[in-house]
From TrEMBL:
GO terms for molecular function: DNA-binding transcription factor activity. Residues 1-20 are annotated as: Disordered. GO terms for cellular component: cytosol. Residues 1-12 have a biased composition (Gly residues). This is cAMP-binding protein. SMART domains: cNMP. The lineage of its organism: Bacteria, Pseudomonadati, Myxococcota, Myxococcia, Myxococcales. Residues 270-389 form the Cyclic nucleotide-binding domain. SUPFAM superfamilies: cAMP-binding domain-like. PROSITE patterns: CNMP_BINDING_3.
Length: 399
């Protein structure tokens, strides 16, 4: 190329051009359709020079503007290229360039002008304009995309309705799980989750959802529809007596308070001298679990797995795992198992199996060790009381 193209020189394959020469060089290379070399010069320019190139390109003829668009695209100045494309009748291409530059709102508007509403909605959604995206998805009848937007807008119940229409039970359960306890439709959401889980064979999970709902919402606690649903689930699990007792209490107008795990945990002798703050910290470590009938909680001779505090249901204690093992005891709400394993290594001394479905608090040994490491005064009190109560507790489980 001649010196009139901008007076540029080449050293080691790099094009070096000063000031005004660089501007002229880019224009000349665009005319020669040498976009790669023009892009290299453009990349080496300062911000002010690149801005001037873009302004000049905007004033130039259509063919030259398209040439500059290609240069800017190759230089990865996607936003500059998009602005050059605006208003030139190629809105879809401009939308792509805006999208590549991260300007999702501008991309969406370009896609709308190009008659591509689905891509516009996706760009609005990507840019956080969820209501606008939802409006377009609704016009398109794109229910799954609508549901995803509704979840992001914290309208989980409305999303669940769409998933139900689509027959996507798993997605419906996930959406319903996002309904907050202060939502007027919280109880309805809990009932629907229970029905879906039960229909899939996850009755124990349904009971756990009910338990969580009751513990997190004053409205759910004692709600007649949830009481009825719990009775139904209990019957599904063969627990007719428990279901009948629950419905009898409701018919008599009695309020059946949910088992208070904190109260049960506080009543365990080795925690009897903990302060309110230490007791609350310990309670926060506990995890609520639902245990199916027949499940072994503690296996005789195996290492201890931590503490279980029974809140609902009952367990049976045997002398061992054998079919003819001696039955030692039946324990119900308020009973606790495995506390020895919290503070002492050693095998479990009895075999414990769930007689019914059991709802319990569980504190693992690992969590308890972290607790005593950070609660020195509580640890001293627990270990002192443990030594006083250990002998009597072992005898109670072994005779």
């Amino acid at each position: 190329m001649s010196e009139s193209a901008g007076g540029q020189g080449e050293q080691g394959g790099r094009i070096r051009t000063p000031g005004e020469g660089a501007l002229r060089a880019v224009r000349s290379l665009v005319e020669l359709e040498d976009a790669d070399r023009a892009a290299q010069i453009y990349e080496e320019m300062g911000d002010a020079q690149r801005e001037r190139i873009r302004r000049e390109a905007e004033q130039g003829p259509a063919k030259e503007r398209r040439g500059f668009v290609e240069v800017l695209r190759r230089a990865r100045d996607f936003l500059g290229a998009a602005k050059l494309m605006d208003g030139q009748g190629e809105d879809a291409t401009a939308g792509d360039l805006y999208f590549q530059s991260g300007k999702y709102m501008a991309a969406a508007e370009s896609y709308l002008r190009a008659g591509e509403p689905e891509r516009a909605a996706a760009a609005f959604e990507r840019g956080g304009a969820l209501e606008r995206a939802l409006t377009i998805y609704r016009e398109l009848g794109a229910r799954e995309a609508m549901a995803q937007c509704l979840v992001r807008l914290d309208r989980s119940f409305d999303a669940a309705v769409l998933y139900q229409e689509l027959g996507q039970a798993h997605a419906e359960v996930e959406a319903l799980g996002g309904v907050r306890p202060d939502d007027d439709r919280f109880v309805e959401a809990v009932l629907r989750i229970c029905q879906l889980l039960d229909a899939e064979g996850f009755t124990h999970r349904a009971l756990a959802v009910l338990a969580d709902a009751v513990s997190s919402s004053d409205v759910a606690r004692g709600h007649p529809d949830l009481v009825t649903e719990k009775a139904r689930l209990l019957r599904r699990m063969g627990m007719e007596a428990e279901a009948d007792a629950m419905l009898t209490r409701r018919a008599a107008g009695a309020t059946a308070p949910a088992a208070n795990g904190y109260r049960f945990l506080k009543a365990i002798p080795i925690f009897g001298e903990l302060s309110l703050e230490d007791m609350k910290d310990l309670y926060r470590l506990a995890r609520q679990v639902i245990i199916a009938p027949g499940t072994v909680l503690l296996e005789k001779g195996a290492p201890g797995v931590g503490l279980f505090v029974l809140m609902d249901g009952s367990v049976e204690v045997f002398s061992g795992p054998e079919d003819d093992a001696r039955h030692l005891n039946t324990l119900g709400p308020g009973a606790y198992l495995g506390e020895i394993s919290l503070v002492q290594d050693g095998p479990v001394s009895a075999h414990v199996r769930a007689r019914t479905s059991v709802r319990a608090l569980r504190i693992s040994r690992a969590d308890f060790e972290r607790y005593v490491d950070t609660h020195e005064a509580a640890a001293l009190r627990i270990y002192r009381l443990f030594t006083q109560n250990l002998a009597g507790r072992v005898r109670a489980l072994s005779t």
